[in-house]
Each structure stands twice: as C-alpha cells, then as structure tokens.
Specification:
Strand content of chain B: 5-15%
CATH class of the largest domain in chain A: Alpha Beta
Low-confidence stretches of chain B: none
Structural class of chain B: alpha/beta
Structural class of chain A: alpha+beta
Largest sheet of chain A: 8 strands, antiparallel
Helix content of chain A: 25-40%
CATH class of the largest domain in chain B: Alpha Beta
Oligomer: heterodimer
Low-confidence stretches of chain A: none
Strand content of chain A: 15-25%
Number of strands of chain A: 19
Number of helices of chain A: 15
Number of domains of chain B: 4
Strand order of the largest sheet of chain B: 1-3-2-4-5
Shape of chain A: globular
Mean pLDDT of chain B: 93
CATH superfamily of the largest domain in chain A: FAD-linked oxidases, C-terminal domain
Number of domains of chain A: 3
C-alpha cells in the first residue's frame, strides 16, 4: 500500500490532528537525547498520538498487515535511540495519553496510562499521602510508559529499588493487535505468583515485545520526613569507601549520590545559590522515614563519613533539600556549562558495577578520559554502583567526536570487565545492543526466541535491545 | 546588531534534547506533541542554519508557535537561550519570505509614532462606528481582534507632558518608558504611574520622540528594526539627561534590557516599577490608606522569567495593605505573549483558561499584574468566562492608597 493510502487508513483510526505526516513533523521525531541520534536521520513514516487501547490495537493490526515497524515513544528523554524509528514505520507518541485512571488507595496501587509524567503522578499521589518511589533525574518530563519499558530507576533505587519492583500488572498490545493483561485480568492483589510472570518479561523490554497501554503500579506511604547529609571529600577514592562504611554500620539511606569535582562546578554554575563546597567529591545521603529516625540516621551518617570527609552538612530544610536534589538531577545536562563551546553527550553514560569496584571504575574512567583526551564529568547513584559519565565535547570537531566514540566503547567494555553491566537504568536501545552477547552469552538466543515467538515479523521496535541481526547467540 | 542564527551556533549545538523544556512550555502543555516543544524549535533552527532545511511557510508556522515567554530558556540546564534562537530563526525566515502585511505593520507603521497614532485612531473610529462588530459578525475579522477591547478616547501621550515635576522637592530624575499597550489601551495606568512617581519625589521625563520598545518587531522577524528602535529610545533619554528608566510594562523593560545587553548602550539603568516603588515608599513614607480588597497576583513571563522578579510586586501589594491571596500556578503564562494571541487565538485561549481557573479559585476580587499585555489577556479571559474579577496594575492600587501630598 502506498504512503498516501496508509495515511488515509491511519486517519480512519485517529482524528486527523492526531496523525502527523508532514516532513517537518516527522523530522522532529528523529531525535532523543542520545549522541547517536545526532548523526542519523531516524525519521518515521508516520506519527500517531494514541489516546485509547483500541487506537493502539487498530494501529498494530494495520502495521502487521503492511509489515510496518511500530515504535512507542514517551517524552523522548531517553539516551539510547529506544524511541526512534531506525527503519521507518509508525511512531506512537504517548505524550497526550496521560490519564491517571484510578488511585486505589485502599489497595495501595495506582492505574495510569503510559503518557503520565512521573513528577505529575507523584504530585497527584501526594494528596493521598502516597508515592511511587523510583525517582529518575528526568522526573519532570519522563513518562511512566517509558519508565516501565526501560525499567528505569534513579536517585532512590538504593532503598526502593527499580521500576520493576512496583509494576503489578500491565495492559499490553501485541504485534497484530491482540490485547492482554499481565498480572491477572481482574487482580488487585499485591502478591500474585500464578502463571508465568509476564509482567517481569515486559518490564524493560523496550517495546520489542509489545506496546504498554496501561500500568498498574504498587505505591507506598509517603515518608513523613526527609533529610540530606552532604559530605565533601578531598579525594574521590574516599567516596566509595564512605558509602560502604555507612552500609556496614547498618544504615540504609534512601539515596546515595556522588558528584566529582567537575560535576560540583557544573551545578554551581547552573544555580550558584546551591553553593556546593568545592571538593574532589561530594556524597549526598538522603534519609527518609519519621522525623526522629531521619534525625538519628542523619547524625549517624555524619559521624561515620566525618572520619573521611573534609566538610559536612545535614539539611532538613525543604528548600535546601529541593535545591540539592535538583542540582543533582540536572547535572546530567548542566555538565555542558563547564565549557563554552562544549556539549554534554549522552553516550557511555550509564554503566553499573559491583559496589566493591566503584572506586576502580571511577579511577579507570578518569584514566580512559585522559587516554582519549575527552573531558568527562562523573556523577551517579553510587549507592547501587550506577556510575554516570558525561563526556563534554565540541560537537563541531570531527576529531573530538571520533575520540568520544572510542572513549564510550572503552567505558562499556570496562563495565563488563569489572563484572558489571553497560547499563544500570537507561536501557540498551540501539546504542548498547552490540554488547549484548558479551554481557549475556547464550541467554541472548533465548531472548531471540522470545522475540520471534511474540513478534515473528520483527516489526515491534526493531533494531533495539537485541544484538544486530546476523550475530549468533553465543558470546 | 543582534546575533543571527549562525551566530547562535554554539548555543543550539549545546542542546542535548533532554526534554527538560517540555513541561514548562505552555504551548507544549496544550498541544502535547513533540513538534510543539521548545527543543524541536532548537533542532529545526540547527537544521535551518546548516542548510538542511529551506525557509518554508510550514517551517515559519512551527516557529510561530512560541510565546517567547522564556520559560524554556530559564529552565534549560545547558543554558540554551531558546527564545533568542526562535527570534533569530523568525528573522531568517522573514528575510527569505517577507510578509508584506507584517512588514508594513511592524516596520512601516509601528516604528513611526505618528503613523502608529493615526492607525490606532482609525481603529478607534471604526470601533465607534460599529465597523469592527460588523466585520466580526460577517466573519471578515478574526475573533482575536476583540482582544484589546474598546479603545479609550485619548492615548496617555495626549495628557502626559514631557516633564512632570516632582510633588515637593525632586529627589530623582527618572525616565518613564511608556509602552504601546499602556499608551493606547490603558492610559489610566500611565496617569497613575506618573502621578505616583511624582508624589514620591521623582521628576518624570517622557521623551516626545519615544518609540515602541521593539518587542513586536522581535516577535515578528524584525530584530534589527527592534535594535535600532532601542538605540533611538535610549538616545532620547540620554538627550534629556536621564540615567534611569522605569516602566510599568514588564514586556518593555525585559525587551529594553535584552536589547541593551546585546548593544553598546550600557549607561542607562532600566528598572521595573514595583522594585523602584518599594524603595521610594521606604524613603518617602507618605501617608496612606489601606486598600480593602482581596487581591491575587499573576506573574508576567517577561518579569518573572525574563527578569527573575517575583518578590517585589507581591511585597508592594502587601505594602499597599490589600488582603493578598497567592494563586496556584501564579507563574504560569496567561497565553498572551504580545502578538502570539492574535496569531494563535484558539491555543492562547486554552492556555488562558487554566489561568482564569486559578484566579477564580482564589476567590479574590482583583488580580494584579505588572504587564499591560497580560492585563489585556486576563480581562479578555475573565470576561469570556463571566468572572467578575477586576484586573489591575499594582500602581493603580498604590495610587488609590496614597494620601494627597
């Protein structure tokens, strides 16, 4: 069927203003935050803006009929080309399907459509004294659908874990348009071990197995108090040791974040009033619970890390805490402020290593940065070994771009060498699937069989997560 | 002259397309597709400057969907000046495909105070004869032409002299930048501004040759014209030995500051009225009566986002003695944005509806704001939603509260 007739078919499914076919609009859908997208034109053939399961199912039926790739997209804040149409096809932009269907406070769960923005979900839940704990740095724009598809987490994963621990059930539209409910058709129970756990299969599947159209999430009581202990260190290597000291003392903070010297400078440039002390490293320990426990844990942490730190601060003032947390959240992008002609690039930015190798990872990343002559900013969720590296380069310089690509490859390989992973929370997409065999070995062949079983025509977000076609299942 | 799009390369390259700008953009929040997001405009500007896109009306339409509220510029962690990029892109597009109508209005008429006066007089006359209503009824005119409401008989220029002496001994010589909206739509605000400044010991100077601040020109692809007008205006003040300029219009002060920052005209200080008034009240301590009204406040984007001023207008209202009620989303855009509401009336009204709902929820009798363009938009929206809330400038409340000298 030609393009014009396909557009006509889509306009039978959607109102005309929710089908985008203009060249400019399609070009706009060719990017996300990834470095890779800057050098490709991943333009879809169509963009649709679904607002019902029936619309998604009808789109997938049409796509199956014509062998068109289908690519789900949330806020496009990802860093892996995960929401981009590598092979054309239809992008489903869920930005406008942002209904919180139900807050089932009696059963501690919430039911939301995929386009709900994380920050807005928690804002809504706050009136019920509840919250959805995973806390990505992109909270203000990322969507719940994107979080589930990438199994993302963020600053509080130390205590609360990742998105998968909160997904009780999903509504999924499969290739061809079949709609299924995982986690039980009518289930509102918090525990359910019946059947194969399809929910876990779809969480983090990056749209290659089906399209998420509804999410049932477990929510938790909102902590009554929070506090943030800030510790500054004269030596970056002291930071991972201080984290282990806190764990070994039997304290589990809700978040532990690290900032290296350049990340500290970037935050101070972004918002000077945050006024972080200049140091080689800063650790932010967030504790939450009731006021007495927060006070006690804050004091304990200060005492423990005080042995290694050169300065300490314990904040319970909501404004100061919001500033510190916001500074940490935006450092990912604010890194660009360190160099007038520089851009922060999202590549090699999400490795995850065992806790006892974080020091080694940070040291080796610095070494690789020097070796490839690319400046980097390091920050991340040190409490769970998730290190974010931000190369800052001049995008106008082909030489710098080339060196950055080599650095990024070396960082990914380092993660595997250190018994870690190339990605802790951002996902694989099209930028890390080349490492899948090295990371997962024979398991990749099972992943392939699952993909083939659910999507025999390979139209569901093709080219993502699994290694490029032609690679076999052995490591 | 202002930076053209190529000159802004360093800035648009720095955009990592993280999407942090999406939730703060009032247009994106309504339209909800990526094409409406600020980062999409930066992306398109990059392609346009690099020659990967040609100047088309479709592209111009994409850039036109921006209020220039600067929320994205303020939010951007990478410090990308999105609004400057949009202005430069509009300029490039207008240069390639000039619109005769826009050029006539914004370059031909708006730059010449005499012609502008004549044109506004003509519109007033047509209103008086019922021609505009007839045009609307026959759908010859767009609904957006009702935005300004009924034009007053005389613009402020007609009754404000070039020099207004201070009541009592003059302490300060101040330039008063009379913006077009205050002049033609709300001359009563200008009257109160001059009266209050005079009462508080200022000699107020309003140069006869003053032109528009240049914002409509920036919005409509004529940044060089805007820059020339700013130079003329600042020179006019300098000729009258004015070192400090104040305006009751936050769009004017924001534009003057922005244009001044890019040109070698650093010797004149530009101030927003509310902060200045707080200082003058503190110095003069005039006799005052409390204004017994419940009042909420709307932050104009060009004051809060462009200039970072949010506290002084609120302090001023409290100083006046009103019962102050903060509204939810006071910092959210009202959807006006100067000429934006005229080009995208439907979209603008959707943005405005959220604002009028927030105002209604406060239960306040009045909403105060420091921008006459916002006043126009809010009055239109409140009337449309049949809300009996008055829209005022804080200086009007202050004028009511001051005892005669």
């Amino acid at each position: 069927m030609n393009r014009h007739r396909l557009a006509t078919e889509l306009k039978k499914i959607f109102p005309a203003d929710r089908v985008l076919t203009g060249d400019l609009e399609l070009r706009i859908y060719s990017y996300d935050s990834s470095f890779m997208a800057r050098f490709h034109d991943f333009r879809p053939d169509f963009v649709v803006l679904p607002r019902s399961t029936a619309e998604v199912a009808a789109t997938l039926r049409l796509a199956a009929e014509h062998g068109l790739p289908v690519v789900p997209r949330g806020a496009g804040s990802g860093e892996t080309c995960g929401c981009l149409a590598l092979r054309g096809g239809i992008v489903l932009d869920f930005s406008s399907w942002d209904t919180i269907e139900e807050v089932d406070a009696a059963n501690m769960q919430v039911i939301a459509r995929p386009g709900v923005v994380h920050f807005k979900l928690n804002e809504h839940l706050a009136s019920y004294n509840l919250f959805f704990p995973p806390d990505p740095g992109s909270t203000r724009m990322c969507t719940i659908g994107g979080m589930v598809a990438n199994n993302s987490s963020g600053l509080r994963a130390v205590k609360y874990g990742t998105t998968e621990q909160y997904v009780l059930g999903l509504e999924i539209v499969l290739a061809g348009g079949q709609v299924i409910q995982t986690g039980g058709v009518r289930c509102r129970a918090l525990k359910n071990v019946s059947g194969l756990n399809l929910t876990k299969l779809f969480v983090g599947s990056e749209g290659i197995l089906g399209v998420i159209t509804k999410v049932r999430l477990r929510v938790w009581p909102r902590p009554k108090a929070r506090g943030i202990a800030l510790a500054a260190f004269a030596d970056l290597n002291e930071a991972p040791s201080a984290v282990l000291d806190v764990y070994h003392a039997g304290i589990l903070p809700s978040g532990i974040e690290v900032l290296d010297a350049s990340a500290i400078r970037a935050i101070n440039l972004y918002q000077p009033e945050i006024n972080l002390p200049s140091a080689e490293a800063i650790l932010l320990f967030e504790v939450d619970g009731n006021p007495a426990s927060v006070e006690w844990e804050g004091r304990q942490i200060a005492e423990i890390v005080g042995k290694r730190a050169v300065s300490l601060e314990f904040a319970t003032d909501p404004r100061r805490m919001a500033d510190l947390w916001r500074g940490r959240s935006v450092v990912a992008v604010a890194a660009a402020r360190l160099r007038p002609d520089g851009s922060r690039i999202f590549a090699g930015e999400d490795i995850s290593v065992p806790l006892n190798r974080v020091t080694e990872a940070l040291y080796k990343i610095k070494e690789l940065s020097r070796e490839h002559d690319v400046a980097v900013v390091n920050y991340g969720h040190i409490g769970d070994g998730n290190v974010h590296t931000a190369p800052v380069i001049n995008l106008d310089s082909p030489a710098e771009v080339g060196r950055a690509n080599k650095l990024v490859d070396a960082i990914h390989r380092l993660a595997i060498e250190l018994d870690g992973s190339t990605t802790g929370e951002h996902g694989v997409g099209a930028v890390r699937n080349q490492y899948a065999l090295a990371e997962h070995g024979e398991a990749v062949s099972v992943m392939r069989r699952l993909k083939e079983a659910l999507d025999p025509s390979n139209i569901m977000n093709p080219g993502k997560l699994l290694p490029p076609e032609g690679a076999n299942g052995s490591a | 002259m202002l930076e053209d799009l190529t000159g802004l390369k360093e800035h648009y390259l720095r955009c990592v397309r993280c999407g942090q700008c999406r939730p703060v953009c009032p247009v994106f929040e309504e339209v909800r597709n990526e094409a409406a997001s600020p980062r999409a405009k930066v992306f398109l500007a990059h392609l346009l400057a690099g020659g990967e896109l040609t100047a088309t009306s479709e592209l111009a339409a994409q850039f036109s969907r921006c209020i220039l509220c600067q929320a994205c510029t303020r939010e951007c962690p990478s410090a990308v000046p999105v609004h400057q990029i949009v202005i430069a892109a509009r300029s490039l597009l207008a240069g390639k495909h000039p619109s005769l109508l826009q050029r006539t209005i914004f370059k031909g008429i708006w730059t010449r105070p005499g012609l502008l006066n004549l044109s506004v007089g003509l519109i007033r006359r047509c209103q008086g004869l019922g021609l505009l209503d007839a045009g609307l009824a026959r759908r010859l005119l767009p609904t957006s032409s009702t935005l300004p409401g009924k034009l007053p008989r005389y613009p402020a220029r007609a009754f404000i002299p070039e020099i207004t002496p201070a009541a009592g001994k003059a302490k300060t010589r101040l330039g008063y930048f009379l913006g077009c909206a205050t002049n033609y739509l709300y001359p009563e605000i200008a009257r109160d501004t001059v009266a209050v400044l005079s009462r508080l010991g200022c000699e107020v100077v309003l140069p006869r040759t003053l032109k528009c601040c240049g914002l409509p020109q920036l919005e409509n692809g004529e940044p060089d014209t805007a820059a020339l007008m700013a130079m003329d205006n600042l020179a006019a003040f300098r000729r009258l030995n004015v070192k400090t300029v104040v305006s009751d219009c936050s769009s004017c002060t924001a534009t003057l500051k922005e244009l001044q920052a890019q040109q070698p005209l650093q010797d004149i200080e530009i101030l927003d009225l509310s902060g200045l008034l707080l200082g003058l009240l503190d110095n003069c301590k005039p006799g005052r009566n409390a204004v017994k009204k419940t009042v909420t406040y709307h932050d104009p984007c060009h004051l809060a986002k462009a200039q970072g001023i949010t506290l002084s207008p609120r302090q001023l209202l409290r100083e006046i003695g009103v019962e102050y009620r903060e509204m939810d989303g006071a910092g959210n855009c009202c959807g006006g944005g100067g000429t934006f509401a005229f080009y995208h009336y439907g979209l603008s009204m959707k943005i405005l509806a959220k604002k009028t709902a927030s105002i209604r929820e406060t239960g306040a009798e009045m909403v105060a704001t420091c921008c006459p363009a916002c006043i126009m938009q809010l009055r239109h929206g409140l009337a449309k939603h049949k809300e009996a809330v008055q829209v005022v400038h804080p200086v009007q409340l202050l004028a009511q509260s001051l005892n005669p000298a």
